Task: structure prediction
Amino acid sequence: MSDAAVSLYTELPIDKAKLAKRRTFSEPFILEDESKLEALKKLAIADGFDVVKGGRFYHLITYGQDKAKAVKYMKSYYENLYNKSFQTIALGDGENDITMLESVDTAILIKKYDGTFTKCGIKNLIKSEYIGPKGWNESLKRILNA
Result:
């Protein structure tokens, strides 16, 4: 996508849209015909990739990449390093965040750009009042009493 197209879809200013295109671990895209999703996933998996749905876009990722695995690894790493237990917090707004939210002590679901929430059945889930970064900020301040 051009910088202008990214700006249009994300509502970011052009300079921020240009920065958003510098991704390292996933490649976001729009799937206009969702009936083709399963066929696309099969092709991706055959090449060592996977397709997941995020808050606004689909993402091409390395097969087996999972945010929950990353959280569990980091928690274990720091607990071993400091020889103490840590509480975990995760924030997310898309379907690709659900496993991560299920794996932490405090899960915060951020309101999506259209004002809705991704469906999930997590107990004691905290929901943001606001959309996007404003929702992240408000939610963290609320639970950290800042």
Q: What stands out?
A: The first strand starts at residue 27 and ends at 29. Strands lie at 27-29, 49-53, 58-62, 89-92, 106-111, 126-131.
